[in-house]
Predict the structure.
Amino acid sequence: MIQTDALVIGAGPVGLFQAFQLGLLGLKVEVVDVLPQAGGQCMALYPDKPIYDVPGVPRCTGRELTGLLLQQASPFLPIDAETGRRQHLHLGHLVESIEAAADGSWLVGGSGGWRCQARALVVSAGAGAFVPRGLGVAALDGAHNVSHHLPDADGPDHAAALPTTALTPHLVAPPWAGQHLVVAGGGEEALSAVLAIAHAPHPEHRPARLSLLHRRDAFQAEPQQEAAVRELIAQGRVQLVIGLPQAAQREGDRVSALELLGADGQVHTLAFDHLLVRLGLSPKLGPLTQWGLDLERKQVRVDTATFASSQAGVHAVGDINTYPGKKRLLLCGFHEATLAAHAIATALQPDAPPHLLYTTTSPVLHQRLGV
Ligand SMILES: Cc1cc2nc3c(=O)[nH]c(=O)nc-3n(C[C@H](O)[C@H](O)[C@H](O)COP(=O)(O)OP(=O)(O)OC[C@H]3O[C@@H](n4cnc5c(N)ncnc54)[C@H](O)[C@@H]3O)c2cc1C
């Protein structure tokens, strides 16, 4: 059971800035997200598209913004020198339940037995937990050789200009290294995965054989991206397989082949070692609706002075909340996170001096930031 002052549920852009603000105010903070990487919508929906309206940042991509937010939060979510992973950032856990404890804290339960006790919660869950879209073949569920995400090498830390020496040695070989990998999908997610895998910087991390499975010979991606994948197909480095998955051959906890309905009306078998399904992610509000929070059209109603929800000690910031005049913009979420952090600090540190400290001039803040 992790014990902390504040738990941030959702590592999207607003959740990451929330962690920074809470840390800056001297609170111990943990962040949890169901995805294997931080960044929320910025990484899941538009990693390489430009954003033009973050104050002071004339242009950056979703991936770059996530990298900068992680870099900014580094004093409170530092990279572990041993593992190369960020401390206090718990990825791959769906928060399922929150329960009020007798002492006023919150007991939080997540997938995989993840548990945390926090004196305050901040829900920064966006439009909900991002879950991957599947191929609609039941036999694939829970199979150990079916994935939906690329390993960390694709993550935002690499766009943050962090010292690569701190990260590169820890890159783990993907589960498909040296095997026959099938990537399923025909959109940007699938094509970008094919390009990243085919051009993996460590040749030993590449699959021995790479196939791209799509239901037709047409892609929904940027022309440049499509041209690069078509080039790999022409070179024989990627095999294009056209077919509609109907069923899968399961052997224990593994899937050995997909049965595909081909354009010729026949069923063909596609054998593989590993399947990477890249059909995009969709947000599911799911468990959050059971947490006893006052909701309005699936969003958490908040007080705009503190961003407190209807439950004492539970705040909501970013796209998940609603109030008169609400705009689902990054800038608004960052403002909300700042006020929520101050309200939480006031509640948890009643003896702390109430005056505002500036990062420019405060030695206390400099010490917390390690500058
Ligand atoms: C295509 C597109 C372009 C955009 N362009 C702009 C722009 O130019 N400027 C701008 O200001 N805004 C833009 N936005 C909006 C902006 O991306 C959102 O306002 C912002 O991402 C909201 O951040 P957030 O942290 O609140 O939520 P999100 O980014 O949605 O992150 C929420 C995170 O919480 C996680 N989560 C949710 N529930 C759980 C749970 N139960 N357990 C564990 N994890 C959970 C999710 O997996 C997710 O990672 C754009 C949005 C889109 C889709």
Remarks:
- The helical segments are 13-24, 40-44, 62-73, 188-198, 223-234, 330-348, 363-369.
- The first strand starts at residue 2 and ends at 9.
- The CA atoms of residues 319 and 327 lie 8 Å apart.
- Residues 134-279 form a domain with the FAD/NAD(P)-binding domain fold (CATH 3.50.50.60).
